[in-house]
Each structure stands twice: as structure tokens, then as C-alpha cells.
Amino acid sequence: MMRNKDEMLILGLTGGIGCGKTAVLTILKEEYDAYIIEADRLAHELMEPGKTVYQGIVDAFGMEVLMDTDIDISAPAEGNAVTDNGQSTVNRSIDRKKLGDIVFHDKDKLALLNSISHPLVKEEILRRIEEQKDAGKKLFVIEAALLIQDGYKSICDKMCYVYADLDVRISRLCEYRGFTKERAQAVIDSQESEAFYLEACDYKIDNSGSLENTKKDLKHILDECRI
Fold first, then answer.
1. Taking CA 187 as the corner, what is the angle to CA 200 and CA 179, rounded to the nearest 5 degrees?
2. Does the structure show a pLDDT above 60 at 227?
3. What gap in Å lies between CA 96 and CA 42, rounded to an integer?
4. Domains contained in the chain, CATH given
């Protein structure tokens, strides 16, 4: 069925490290007035004190994952989160490095973290989708490295795979992230294959060359989607 041009299009965007998803998001925002959700960034927002993911993480992992502070936490202040053992978090932010060190070495704890954060991130995305529909937005983009694995295909109208040649990805990771070639290759090898993305996605955006070529790919896709 052809999509009504007046309906909001929900576009999923994914791809491996170094493929240039940020550049594609910039084009979508600046040239197509897209509302952009970056799932990782949203997860970090929801990990801030007072947000939905924060309390779940503190309850599950304890106060040792919070930033160090000189504030006396023996008596909870009004409005502060409180752990199961009655201690106040006094709005101390989660230390993502501490949390990362814990889950990196323990698959069960990583699964626990994901079971806390992923449903709440998805819930917030669904809330924002309805909010933007009501506001008359025409294009809503969800970017996530694990877009396919986390089941966003059921939410998105179309899925796009951002691709770049291997040598381009390695070069970008070395130049912009300070990786060695060996580390860049190892990280890329640890991620899903091109075949995995192609099977799950409706479109492929080749981001190996010039920005103009990437823009042409995007225009073709969005024209086909009636944006």
C-alpha cells in the first residue's frame, strides 16, 4: 500500500562503526527537517538522576556505580532517589565508566543492564513518536547500532543500512577516534556482517564516497517514501 504523503514516516537507521551514520543524520535534520532520535544518546539522558532508567540501574547495581561525591549521603534529602537499602543517591550521576567496567566482563550483568534500559528507551521513543505526529512532523528517524536486534523493525516504516567500504571505515576510526588499524579491524570484525544488515533493511545508503553521493542516495529513498 502506498503511504499517504501527509503521514509521518518513521525511518530506522543503522550500520556498523565507522560507516558515517552521524553524517547521514545531519543531512536528514538539516535538509529534510527530520526529528532525530539517537538511541544511545537517549539512553544516556534517561540515566540522569530523576529519569526512568536511573533508578533501575541504581537498584540493580548499587551505589558503587555512581559518581564519587563529598556530599554526606547518610540522610536522604527531599526529592532525592533512594536505594532499596535506604541510602540517598543525592542526585549523583551514574559513572558510565564504572558501569561499563562491570558489564564488559560479565554477560549476565550486561543482559541485566539491557533488560532495564532497552524497554524504557523504547517506551520513550514511542511517546515521542506520538508527540511528533501530533505536532505535524513528517519525518521521524531512529538511529541505533542495535536497531535490528532490539526489535525496532516493528516500529519503523522503513529501515536503512548505512554502508561504507572497509578501508574507509578503518581510515575514519583511525583519524577521528584515534584507533590503531588493528583495533579498528577488531571492532569491525566483532560486529554484524553486511549480509545481516542487507537482509533486515529496506534500503542501503553508500556512504563511502562524497557527501553529494550520499545525499543522492537519501533523496532517492525519501522520494520513493513520498517525503
1. 135
2. yes
3. 14
4. 9-34+139-224 (3.40.50.300)
